[in-house]
Specification:
Four copies of one chain form a homotetramer. Chain A has about 210 residues and is mostly helical. In chain A, about 70% of the residues lie in helices and about 0% in strands. Chain B binds a DNA duplex (21 and 21 nucleotides) through helix 3.
Chain lengths: ~210, ~210, ~210, ~210
DNA sequence: TATGAATGAGGTTTCATTCAT
DNA sequence: CATGAATGAAACCTCATTCAT
């Protein structure tokens, strides 16, 4: 994970990505403010000075990182959410849930979102950017799924806002439990099983009921 | 919010709380590392030096703050969750949800949890502490609720892990949307309505169904 | 030694001396610059503020201390050195040596000279003062002793400078070994025996020799 | 003394020594606690930050300095003391005395021992280190000299402790007079003459006497 | 392109000194 | 007289950034 290959072996065009990768590691370990450019450089197998050949400043690295991550996540999410959504929104949700739980349990992948969360206070533009480029994409996709299901007669008529939170919330909560707040003796849950169990509850909650109260 | 009354007028025994309050503000605005003790002091209406009469270091303020908040939240949560849980778990969940959404929409209250989230990377002990003192209390309470409902015949037999995530997740997600990732043109949702809508979905998801599979 | 009696019990006129005594302790433990007025105050059984009722500043304490000590030592030395010097300079030297070795082995007494030594760099006036008020008194007394002995025919005709160094030097060296540079497993020497042994060498070195050169 | 040549012109590998040299100056002028790293840096022709590229802390400089000095002095002393000691201990003592008086009259050379003396209170390890690495070497050498002389029949049978103090003491005393406690109108003594005069007394004091009292 | 020495602003922490009570 | 809260000027140390090589 950590770059350790000799500089000479590597291609110069890879440098920026290597630096960003190292930066991601250090940022999520220490937080942005406490991260030292020197550490990023060392982890990328470069000298401190060299880093400044590729990025103007530490903030520039943060921004590049977030943009990169936002792009990736947004693409993945939008692709997935549309895939088969119209035919079978329930099946689509299950698939998305499984993918998301798997991905976000990987600290390497959850690192970027967590970083944004951490630094949102100091860089509100970052939070706004992430909201628009990642969160909104996800929410829109979920909204689409839900409306499709409703049209199909698979889902009841519930408030969009609430449905989206019910869809997304469990993933967010699980991401935090399994990364930031993980304890050493936490049991290792299978993302597939967990996804099924969550989907079972949430989808059931959206199903129309013949004779129901509430 | 910001103390501005002359020092002499105020009671010395209030100083620690005044400082913590100021520290909370500055920490959540800038993050712990970027927060300057000078700013905390000024916002508490004191000089930099005076702060050190009450706290040994900046880290000491962070710890005190987290402990304070943990105590408060844990108490509130455990009180609420037991209140009437045995008689009517559904009603209890609705009440908890409403309370949580209201509380966490208030940036003053959500500040501490968000701070922990931000600094967890640099202070893993803090994350552990919060997990044990706050999160586990909440999870335990939710688990209790769910098992009670199951015994009552109000809830289906579902995996505890998943049920807890379904219960808690939407609140976590909403907290983030309404604080960290808030956009200026976000509609102001009524916490009561939102709680009802979410409860409607989640509780319905747990209900036994006459003729039905997943 | 350290003041621990209740303030109420003590007489106000003793305050300055109690403070100086505490200051002496702290100064020799930490050095002047690193000594904290707070520590001095506590050790004198007072609050920090009260110390400033008796002394204008930390430097004022240092000066008072050195003057006090200089007065004491100079008096003792000059008294002793004149006592019986004319009748029997050898006996006088033995007596002085014994007294000096005894006194300077006591860390409480050697503290002041060592303090002057330590702070001489930063307070040259102190060094000058001590030189004139203490060292010169001692050197003069020793010079008197030597000249008397020479007139008596008990001592050879040697350079005054060298003789004084030979007289005083061993005491200075022993003081350092037994205070600053003491090791835990250093043997405890009897000042009387040591004084006799040193006097034996030094006085013998000054005696006229019948047929002999160096 | 003070480096003033532009940084770029100088060789980086000299930096540590240049810094130590500057530190020695500042420490002996102000004492360790009152010495400012900024002053050391400026005197070494560097910025504050650069100093920290070479030494971890101010204390690290002090330690390096003392070790450096200890090494030098111990080497010099042990070399000298063994040189010709067996053949003619009296001549050896005269040579050592002359060397020591010359060296220690030079403030640059006596600076380190005086520094140790000053800071011994605050850094007892330093005092211990110096005692073992410098003082003991000197005392051992002197002891060797004395025992050799005794075997040769050149010296009387006297207590080792006392003889060593008689040998070393005058040098210590003279060092202090000529550095710490120097007055502007002190006469400039020739170290060679002084050494001869002191040696004359001390060695005479150790010589066996045909008909003597005490 | 890459290095690593150097800078200097900025942050935390300490502490002599003051002053209202 | 005495207290202890408060101040504010340093001082140590860190690190983003620059630059000569």
């Amino acid at each position: 994970m950590t770059a350790s290959i000799r500089t000479a072996r590597r291609r110069p065009e890879d440098r920026p990505d290597e630096i960003l990768s190292a930066a991601m590691e250090v940022f999520s370990e220490k937080g942005f403010a406490a991260a030292r450019v020197e550490d990023i450089a060392r982890r990328a197998g470069l000298s401190k000075g060299a880093v400044y050949l590729y990025f103007d400043s530490k903030v520039a690295m943060l921004k590049a990182l977030v943009e990169q991550s936002a792009g990736r996540i947004a693409n993945a999410a939008s692709t997935l959410s549309l895939m088969g959504a119209d035919d079978d929104p329930e099946q689509a949700y299950r698939a998305i849930l499984k993918m998301a739980l798997t991905a976000l349990s990987d600290p390497e992948i959850s690192a970027a979102p967590r970083l944004v969360l951490s630094e949102a206070g100091r860089f509100p533009e970052l939070a706004q950017f992430y909201r628009k480029r990642v969160i909104e994409v996800g929410r829109t996709a979920m909204g689409h799924l839900i409306r499709t299901g409703r049209r199909n007669g698979r889902f009841r008529d519930v408030a969009d806002e609430a449905a989206v939170l019910a869809f997304i919330g469990p993933v967010v909560a699980q991401m935090m439990l399994s990364t930031v707040f993980r304890l050493d003796d936490d049991p290792e849950l299978d993302p597939g099983d967990l996804a099924d169990a969550i989907a079972d509850i949430v989808l059931n909650g959206l199903k129309p009921r013949s004779v129901n109260d509430a």
